[in-house]
Design brief:
415 residues; alpha+beta; Rossmann fold; Dna Ligase, domain 1; D-amino Acid Aminotransferase, Chain A, domain 1; five-stranded parallel sheet; five-stranded antiparallel sheet; 12 helices; 29% helix; binds adenosine monophosphate; binds glycine
Amino acid sequence: MKVLVIGNGGREHALAWKLNESPSVDKIYVAKGNGGTSSFCENVDIDPSDIEGLVEFALKEEIDFTVVGPEDPLCGGIVDVFRDKGLKIFGPNKECAQFEKSKEFTKIFLEKYNIPTARYLSFTDYEKAVDSLDEFSYPLVVKADGLCLGKGVIISQNRDEAVEALNQIFNERVFGQEGDKVVIEEFLTGEEASLLCLVSNNKLYPLERAKDHKQIFDGDKGPNTGGVGTYSPVKATDKLVKSLREVCDKIEEGLDKEGLNYSGILFIGFMIEDDEPKVLEFNVRFGDPETEVLMPRLDCDLFLLLNKTVDGDLKAEDIKWKDDYCLTVIMCSGGYPGSYEKGKVITGLDDTDKDLIIFHNGTKLRDGDLLTNGGRVLSITAMGDDLQEAREKAYENAAKIHFDGAYYRKDIGTK
Ligand code: AMP
Ligand code: GLY
């Protein structure tokens, strides 16, 4: 089988790495891929959001199965376009991708199906949004409705900050048309967590849990990033497991009643307080870096799993896990998530342990040198019998890898 993986990051490297273990998979193309995927896949120079270019390539190369990493092509309708051409593809269709494309779409769904979430109001008009502020207490959360590369959520400590956030989105148009609509919602306290589910024929099959670390500095300080470290599994009380399943059941009911046909991954972001989960957001794709710790722990054939998901006949017992712990520390470019330089030479990879797994988030090869090519650069991933063993191994090896300005958190998995 010929498989195409769409995307450039650590998530796509991890997916391709696991697909490469499958006896059914003969060749993997990655568009565009990175310096890590090029070692065992063929990188294809087509942008992940170039749907026409990708479909043309898949037809020409007679690709048997396509896996989409990022949200952009999913929200742009790549799944519908591929299926129209008879090409098999893993991911939700354009209608279902609205769960990530529009925060209001998700909030309406959550409210309609009684799924716990923050109280909210949505607006298309600056004045009306400002008038509504007195209905909330502070802090409150102002969210641009659309896709804003994770920057569209502004937590406001007082009325002045909230007015300024609305001004930025509606009047200054900092997110362009992605800010045509705004959701204002109550601020939730608790511990953030996520649950990734394979969704086959509107049925949710939770994967084992992974803990992301979003802030750039130790102790969860500093600005949010795409995620700079993660580990799995994460323990949960019976009460929490039951509450999470109840949320999944309500989502299944809602998908059916709305006449949606969801297939692919649903990433549910939660805020959890006293074992009571409230939904913060839906994403319609695998998490990055959650995927970097889930793939090494998966104890079955990913290609078969994704195929069954698309065919609508996945069963819970198809998904198998290793008992081992897995932990990833992400080495970042100095300055990330603010501005940073690219093109720094990376050294030391050959000195790392043979059983260490290094997924590349943002690298490229030039004249035999491996160069940094993004804010998140390398996911240093280690397995262990327990969390401590995985953590020590990841950190011992991270210390052997060097590039100018390299930075990583020192406290992943210590909480
Ligand atoms: P979202 O893209 O909606 O998940 O928001 C991005 C981040 O903003 C989340 O991961 C949370 O850290 C934070 N956030 C979003 N909504 C809320 C909320 N209602 N209360 C507290 N924090 C929130
Ligand atoms: N790690 C968070 C995300 O993928 O959105």
